[in-house]
């Protein structure tokens, strides 16, 4: 146990370090907000500039172990600031008489090679987990870590950080889960020196998440971790769940218990790219495309083939249906020079091609949208253009060049008048 004088000395020294090394005003160093806005006002805390210095990290570790010493804890965090913090706290444990201290960190996204880990370091089932970070504002970073741990059957004993931005009453999520929040400082502690104060509730705190519990779990064989793209979304009817897989197997699962009702293996396809297409159900038939270049129509009850359309080299697009026209629309991909993409309209009953447009210069991964009101279908391609067709006969009505919209901020929608020619 530290003596009160030592505790206050370390805390005061760490506070000065944060004030002089971590606090940045917008007029001194313009920065970009999380929403992507360039800001020349306001302020932020760059705590990394503190915890990467030996004396400040030593003070942080001493204050951490003053709270959690002798409680048999393991320290966890999320990359990237948390990595330095976890390492420093674990290293300091030996000087504090905490034998066997260890840590881990959670990746923001799963590693795409090697061991494909989401969590680096072994989570010790014998130890209580304390999650740490440099600051807490909304708490979303900690929430994500808690959800990862819960998926592994663990729950943190507490969360700890250097600076808390809001009153503890704001963090209802943690209170409802019984997870206490420990912070060395809050913004009010810097009121006299930096002019900060605890943030008000400009927005309501994140609502408590409804407690969903897995009823069953199904893991398809041979998943591909290299292709981090939108893949096959499930389709549902009254009894079953239908979905594609990276291994090229289409699955029908019983909703009641997750057991396999039937499966269907598509043809040869690139490794790890089997079925990215999301299925569509209509009147007992399930439709989807696959990277063997085919479009499939299967009986939803039995999994037996109704028809197969051999239309392209690859298909990653998802089908769109126009039942009143009896047509299915889907994007196409080819391996030919200057003929890489297109769209086809297939007869829903037979799979025969009613019309096709195959002159798009790049792949067409995207999925078409059928506009029932005007009997038109629109699709985007990798050339950065949107194409609008007459759904009945495939006449190209217009082509809109987006110029790939490199400088358009995310979140802005472009609305096109589908009736213009």
TrEMBL record:
Taking every annotated instance into account, which residue ranges of this chain make up the domain Pyrrolo-quinoline quinone repeat? 215-399
| Stored Gene3D superfamilies | 3.40.50.2020, YVTN repeat-like/Quinoprotein amine dehydrogenase
Domain of life the protein comes from? Bacteria
**Under what name is this protein listed?**
Quinonprotein alcohol dehydrogenase
State the organism of origin.
Candidatus Kaiserbacteria bacterium GW2011_GWA2_58_9
